[in-house]
Amino acid sequence: MKYRLGTGVGLAFISVLLLFLVLAEGCGNQANAKITSDSNQTKNYPLVRGFEVDYCEKLGYTYDYRMNETSGMMEEYCRLSKTVECEAWAFVSGECHPEFSLCKREGYLPKIGVEKRGNTTIQYPICIFKDGTYCKEVDFFNHKCSVDWKN
């Protein structure tokens, strides 16, 4: 699926997604779920799992939901290597270490797309393919673009 900046395609989806994530963040700070893997290791997840969990884990990185010692709030992180981690949403939104994104990993160019609608500016990660077309990173991850990847 190809998108053109400024066309408004997906604007409603992004708005609803952002609202859902804000609401989920509030829920995630109050409670969490514990899941035990086959290796009997217990891992914490927010009560409502968002896209950032799947994006982090399906790309082979380690998702971590833990208490921030300073604020006392639960926060989500994606560990990208032994020495690099990002807040999960900052990674998914392309603001933190885009060189670890699906787009870059597949050999394409990650950029931030910007749409301005009246007084509102929306930013989201896009992936620019070798033929010059592009797609939102979330759509690329979900196999909804003209270019695909193997997971």
What does this structure look like?
It contains five helices and eight strands, in the order αββαβββααβββα. The chain is globular, with a radius of gyration of 16 Å. It has 151 residues and is of the alpha+beta class. It has one domain.
Features:
about 150 residues; alpha+beta; three-stranded antiparallel sheet; 5 helices; globular
Q: Report the principal-axis shape.
A: globular
Which structural class should the secondary elements be placed in?
alpha+beta
Q: What string, H for helix and E for strand, traces the elements in order?
A: HEEHEEEHHEEEH
* Overall tally of structural domains: 1
Total DSSP E strands: 8
Can you give the mean pLDDT?
80
**Main β-sheet description:** 3 strands, antiparallel
Q: Quote the distance from N terminus to C terminus.
A: 19 Å
Given the structure, what is the number of helices? 5
Strand content: 25-35%
Gyration radius over CA: 16 Å
Helix coverage percent: 25-40%
Low-confidence stretches are 11-40
What spatial order of strands do you see in the largest sheet? 3-4-5
